[in-house]
Hints:
This protein is mostly helical. 74% of the residues lie in helices and 0% in strands.
Amino acid sequence: MTLPDLADLVQAQNRDIVSEWIEAVRNDPRIHSDEGFTDNGLRDHVPFIIEELCNLLRVGQMPQAANTREGRVHVYTRYRQGYRARDLVCEISLLRIILLDHLATGMILAPIGGLKTYVEATRIINRYIDEELRYAISVYTEADTQGQLPGTSEEKQG
Length: 158
């Protein structure tokens, strides 16, 4: 399998990945900020994140601030919704795990391209998620220094 093949595989599973991710977020006892969200509210930019990530896989491009717009929009939207930073990190981490699981399953079912292609794809996925987390840290840190962090002071310390 080539990187574009893997991108097509992930893109074809976008809906399933998002559904699995929503279920994982809902069932994760560490995440509490999702309680007031409908599934559509929780889903928000995740399908677009997957699409943007697939586009990067297709061209073999490493994620960076300039090409991870949907990840940044997701972070900022969560911040504006009052989502706690630690919950955002958990939900982003769950997305990473689910994406890598789907990628591994795809490679097992159609092992064309081998380990090298898998490693390249996982680097792109990991870098994308890392860029999203970096942006989250900057948004929440800046908000904290300006006294605009969502939640109570007790939640900020946790």
